[in-house]
Amino acid sequence: MDWFVVASKPKSEKTAEFNLQRQSFQFFPPLFEKNSYHARRVYKVLQTFFPSCLFVRFNARIMPWPSINSTIKLRHILKNNCSPHPVAKKLDNILLGKLNLRGTIKEQEQRLLSVVK
Fold this sequence. Notes:
Shape: globular
């Protein structure tokens, strides 16, 4: 199984995730913790690292991937010559290796990955 990039509608990642889960697709939204300030208090807020993008994992030969394009709050899957284009294995390993125990991108790694962005 490979990871693929799917474009979602702006600020609709949570709804898109719910709909992908209902269709039995495995997904991964790269998140990071950001400090938010309100009334002299600091809160940790989760935000998407790549806005309007999700990573979906499936076997393109077996799974009904065209249903992703009609999923509510998703725009389209990244394709090459009418077939889904998988994320490079190196990027896959790099991105998943930068996560902490909560599944968010480690704070010290955010600067490094923001260069890739």
